[in-house]
Amino acid sequence: MIESLRKYANPFHSIDDLDPLIEAIGDAKYVLLGESSHGTSEFYTIRAELTKRLIQEKGFSFIAVEGDWPACQSINRYIKGFSPSNKDVREVLEDFNRWPTWMWANQEIIGLIEWLKEFNIKTNRSEKVGFYGLDVYSLWESLDEIVGFLTKINSPELEAAKKAFACFEPHNRNNESYAVSAGYLSEDCMKEALHLLSTIQKNKWRFDDDQESSLNMEVNALVTAHAEEYYRTMVKSDDESWNIRDRHMVDALNSISKFYGKDAKVIIWEHNTHVGDARATDMKNEGMVNVGQLVREQNGEDMVFIVGFGTYTGTVIASTEWGVNLEVMDVPPAQPGSWEYFMHQAGAMNQYLIFNDQNRKEFSSTVGHRAIGVVYHPEYEHFGNYVPSNMGKRYDGFIFVDCTNALHPLVLEHVNI
């Protein structure tokens, strides 16, 4: 493995050194950019520079991220000029107030947002570049947006929205309360959520305007229906709730792509565990799927290019348990025998690797591949932070930063768990 890495991996010092990676993407319409943690500065800054080049040089249409739809809509409105002209980017990022806030309310993302806004002002494209959230967690916020908009326009679909809202209301915006009630007591809002989704989908033409209200309503309705299913399932099956979440992200992605048209080209930012094809990991044995697998299956592997990210050591932003204060934590040197360990041994430097027909077989051995979540215990990471992976099949490219630094979060006054 080390000999193969020395043969095929190339050092990089700046975004210009990644020209061969940009070239290898070719005519792919879906470029998935991963990360091995949600709290590493370099993963955000490198993805941002790659994203700029893909937009400028290859005409990519929008960015879709592992974030909540309503909060990401604040960024989308800002970069497209839908927000008040005096609104500051930091005010926009205050809408990311659900824990873990640092995933998008951070210093690193500000530069990309301002660049996107400037690009959209200057572009001659008929459709401006967008920024959208694909995740499933924003049940209550999405319901709020649906009810608020339908009330504003006095829509006949308001009755279905109010019925759904009334069903969820007794749980006081508490996901765990709904999960227990629906999962164990069979007191769920499935019927109301699905009826709302059906109603919105049938009548979304009513909401067409120059601020994407039809798309906004459709995806918020998807979130409502799929979040209900996610929370109802999570108390009984982690694996199936994972599948519901990733299938939702692909459904949301497809809705956005359809909105942009058949020539839409998409950049996706998510954790490696979502973008790296699940069929090349032990997730397959558990019956789990993910975004990378589904996008490849739906669009053909020639139209998809997946880039994984990793590090040998450094620091990271994470928490010791869900909902508690973030910390800057040390990332210990990668476990011997892991992918990150081999890359470090091949050369203690920043490197990138392109997998192709000539070399994939040389990277077909199953090795541990580090994955750090928002909850992290570095001292115990050898027990569960390495995903057995066939790297040559999991990705089309890999970017390795030998020593990384923690993300720089913005300080928000109000945080929801």
Automatic annotation (TrEMBL):
Pfam families in alphabetical order: Erythro_esteras
CDD domains in the cross-refs: Ere-like
SUPFAM superfamilies given in the database record: EreA/ChaN-like (SSF159501)
GO biological process: response to antibiotic
Protein name: Erythromycin esterase-like protein
Annotated source species: Neobacillus bataviensis
